């Protein structure tokens, strides 16, 4: 599943092509992704000039005058920029033609993504956004905040980090990598974290996410960026997907365990 770095990389990629451009035509080839698409969505977004592209959690919000188009990439969704002569690919379900002669296409093999429009900001009115935690790269996500959020919770710290009500956008990959960098086991109970643990973990999360964004995200499974290219942060993985391979620091085998039915990776010597 695309996580925060992949979504941010997508936004950084599409913004130069979309900002201040007008949508001339919208073509949709399916009635339903994760949810049924609004029947009038193709008509509503036509002739709208795009004035903003932002991210909240893993949602992409494309905005114009009195209209907001919200996109979630789901499990395998991608957005890419195409020219008018480029043939559609299998699973291209949604496209917007712009007055700059480029096309924004949404491809989603598993159809777990979502696209919907609203006339008011979804941040203020949509239930999907109302209970979200702070952005991990914001000042609101601090060591003091994490310590307060964790001190009475009897759950594994990795589960806490993947709870969008606590902090948004940190999925399986970046939680595993951040916990390794901060030397904390993924199954450590949240309420046992010290203030120093929280300081180290917040610093590690911000460092890992910034590095992943800079390197275009992690291209595992089907993720590609808007130009059809792969990211390369996966070459920096210290623990994720490295079961039985030697730790880069101590040479011990990387272990794999299940936490809430999700695979977690760690080094038993480097992480406590």
Topology:
Elements: H1 4-18, E1 23-28, H2 41-44, E2 50-56, E3 59-64, E4 67-72, E5 78-83, E6 92-98, E7 102-107, E8 114-118, H3 122-125, H4 127-130, H5 143-150, H6 157-161, H7 172-181, H8 195-214, E9 255-259, E10 262-266
Antiparallel strand pairs: 1-6, 2-3, 3-4, 4-8, 5-7, 6-7, 9-10
Helix pairs in contact: 1-8, 5-8, 7-8
Tag the structure with descriptive keywords.
272 residues; alpha+beta; N-terminal domain of MutM-like DNA repair proteins; Helicase, Ruva Protein, domain 3; 2 domains; four-stranded antiparallel beta sheet; 10 strands
Describe this structure in words.
It is a single chain. β6 and β7 form a beta hairpin. With 272 residues, the chain is of the alpha+beta class. It has eight helices and ten strands. The strands form three sheets. Strands 1-6-7-5 form a four-stranded antiparallel sheet. It folds into two domains: 127 residues, MutM-like, N-terminal (N-terminal domain of MutM-like DNA repair proteins), CATH 3.20.190.10; 124 residues, Helicase, Ruva Protein, domain 3 (Orthogonal Bundle). About 2% of the residues have low confidence.
Summarize it.
With 272 residues, this protein is an alpha+beta fold. It has eight helices and ten strands.
How would you characterize the largest beta sheet?
4 strands, antiparallel
Which assembly state applies to the chains in this document? single chain
Share in helix: 25-40%
What name is given to the CATH topology of the largest domain?
N-terminal domain of MutM-like DNA repair proteins
- CATH architectural category of the largest domain: Alpha-Beta Barrel
| Succession of helices and strands | HEHEEEEEEEHHHHHHEE
CATH class of the largest domain: Alpha Beta
Number of strands: 10
């Amino acid at each position: 599943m695309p996580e925060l770095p992949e979504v941010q990389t997508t936004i950084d990629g599409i913004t130069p092509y979309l900002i201040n451009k007008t949508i001339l035509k919208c073509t949709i080839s399916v009635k339903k992704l994760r949810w049924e698409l609004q029947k009038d969505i193709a008509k509503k977004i036509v002739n709208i000039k795009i004035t903003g592209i932002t991210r909240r959690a893993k949602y992409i919000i494309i905005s114009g005058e009195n209209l907001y188009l919200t996109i979630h990439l789901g499990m395998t969704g991608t957005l890419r920029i195409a020219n008018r002569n480029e043939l559609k690919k299998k699973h291209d379900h949604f496209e917007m033609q712009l007055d700059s002669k480029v096309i924004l296409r949404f491809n989603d093999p598993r159809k777990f993504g979502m696209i919907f429009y609203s006339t008011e900001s979804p941040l203020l009115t949509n239930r999907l956004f109302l209970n979200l935690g702070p952005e991990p790269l914001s000042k609101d996500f601090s060591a003091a905040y994490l310590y307060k959020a964790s001190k009475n919770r009897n759950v594994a710290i990795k589960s806490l980090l993947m709870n969008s009500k606590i902090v948004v956008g940190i999925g399986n990959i970046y939680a595993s990598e951040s916990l390794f960098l901060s030397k904390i086991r993924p199954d450590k109970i949240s309420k046992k974290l010290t203030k120093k643990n929280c300081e180290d973990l917040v610093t590690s999360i911000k460092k890992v996410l910034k590095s992943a964004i800079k390197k275009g995200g992690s291209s595992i499974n089907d993720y590609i960026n808007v130009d059809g290219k792969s990211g390369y942060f996966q070459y920096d993985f210290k623990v994720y997907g490295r079961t039985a391979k030697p730790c880069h620091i101590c040479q011990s085998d990387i272990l794999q365990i299940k936490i809430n039915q999700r695979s977690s990776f760690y080094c038993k010597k480097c992480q406590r």
